[in-house]
Amino acid sequence: MNDDSTTMLIALAVLALGVVLIAYGTARHLLGFNPAQPKIKPILVDLEEVPAICVLHGWGRFHVVVFRQSGNVHAEHIETSATDALSRALSTFRRAKIDQARVIRNDEDALHFYRPYHDHRGSSEGKKVGWVQISRLV
Description:
The structure is a single chain. This protein is of the alpha+beta class. It contains three helices and six strands, in the order H-E-H-E-E-H-E-E-E. The protein has helices at 3-30, 50-53, 82-95, and strands spanning 43-46, 59-68, 73-81, 100-106, 110-114, 129-137. The protein has a six-stranded antiparallel β-sheet, covered by helices on one side. The chain is elongated and about 75 Å long. The mean pLDDT is 84.
């Protein structure tokens, strides 16, 4: 082997390694892997229990986003306290006759919960309330 072919082989190996690393990083990003956010197992609770387990508290601006099952935004609200934001989210769930929720994020900055089952009934499929995200605005 001469020097040109050895250099070309090393360059191809480095290029292949770079492509593999980029593909791996992109796949992790698209799948939602975030090492800074600890993984928690979703817990099923009654709606009346959500205020008791909620870590989100205090005053400030809170962004409440209600999503439909289809993923589209159903409603957005800005509240001035965590209690008001939680009340707004829970009233939306109660109005939709959802009496349980799966909490998937519960920390000082956000509370995310969704309906425990997907409703597949008729023409209204996807139009029903799916989940709520309450986030503290800075």
